[in-house]
Amino acid sequence: MKLRLTKSEMKVVKHKALGLSEKQIADKLFNAIPTIKKHLQNARNKNGLKNSFELVARYAANNPFIFLLETEIEYETL
Predict the structure, then answer these.
(1) For residue 42, what are the CA distances in angstroms to 13, 16, 78?
(2) Core vs surface per residue 35-48: b (16+ CB within 10 A) or e
């Protein structure tokens, strides 16, 4: 099942899927940590998911090739 996300939520979920912490995501997206937490909470709630693990798993299931490519790119730039 495809995730229903706003553009902001999608950005946060992508970074979470790449293994970044909430602080790292906040720094990268120039947002406050509470904003990042709220985006993750909204994304979980609107998709009926219990936790961020389920959210990341659903994202990876829906975007397997993009997820792998982004992981390689992200690790090369860290």
Answers:
(1) 11, 14, 28
(2) bbeebbeebbeebe
Q: For residue range 7-61, list pLDDT tens digits in order.
A: 999 999 999 988 899 999 999 999 999 999 999 999 999 999 999 999 999 998 8
Angle made by CA atoms 6, 19, 38, in degrees to the nearest 5: 35
Q: Is the pTM of this model over 0.85?
A: no
Report residue 6 CA to chain centroid gap: 11
Residues in Cβ contact with 55 at an 8 Å cutoff, skipping those fewer than 6 apart = 3, 13, 16, 40, 43, 44, 47, 49
